[in-house]
Amino acid sequence: MCTSFKTELLQAVHNFTNGTGDTFKLALYTNSASFTAATTAYTATNEVVGTGYTAGGGTLTNVTPTSSGTTAFADFADLTFSTATITARGAMIYNDTAAGDPSVVILDFGADKTSTAGDFTIVFPAADATNAIIRIA
Amino acid sequence: MTSALTMDFPAGFQVGVQTSNNRGFTPEEIASRCADKIVSVSDTSHPAIREQAKAFKDQIEKVLAFYMREAVKSDRTTVYNALMDAGHPELAKMIRNL
After folding, report:
1. Which H helix or E strand runs over A4?
2. What pLDDT score was predicted for residue B1?
3. In this structure, are residues A59 and A96 in contact, taking their beta carbons and an 8 Å threshold?
4. ipTM of this predicted structure
């Protein structure tokens, strides 16, 4: 989780509401990319290049923030790059609406993932208080 | 009096990635992913609850896969007719025989 994102939440930079909120995108990166919690914004450096993938990545479908018990959470629907020939080691979710494309979170796939003339799908966890990708407990 | 807000990933957290080569995903593969979104149960829940949830999830997955196959077949019928109307009978036949 990017530290700058936590600060920006308190500055009302991000709106995850489905339909009326900001547009969030997911960009894929090769294993040459080096991100940390100090990463603050989208970059095209070391971004994946390949058939079925456009620089900037794919647009995510927001799951409107809600809460369960004392935990608030937001999530996204799965994202598929269709008929893609690409290899990616990780991804960045960033706010494409906010000025400067501020980053939200960096995702490490654990190893290179490859699709060849096939589908490359990012599977997000279930949108609940124990699994959602963005939770405030 | 107050607890600190926490919003970091638990240890070992990884987002899932599924890929395919030279094909798309099958209805069964997508149904499995869909069932994971509909039914989730904690590892720490009572074993009886966990078993019940798993049985329900397995059943949901079969129903989802069936109707996804139906949707694929129906869409091919639509594509077949669109290609026939556009004057591509050979291509239409290929789609119907997939």
Report:
1. helix A3-10
2. 44
3. yes
4. 0.85
Mutation target for A interface from B37, B38, B42: give the one with most A CBs within 10 A. Answer: B37
Hey, is the C-beta of B15 within 8 angstroms of any chain A C-beta? yes
3-state secondary structure A32-88: CCCCCCCCCECCCCCECCEECECCCCEECCEEEEEEECCEEEEEECCEEEEEEEEEE
CB atoms within 10 A of CB A82: 13
- Pick A44 or B15 by higher pLDDT: A44
Start-to-end CA span in chain B (Å): 64
* Owner of token pair 């059943």: B59
Among the partner-chain residues B18, B21, B36, the one whose CB lies closest to the CB of A121 is B18
Query: Model's pTM, two decimal places?
Result: 0.86
Chain A partners within 8 Å of B17 (Cβ): 88, 109, 113, 120-123
Contact B15 A121 (CB under 8 A): no
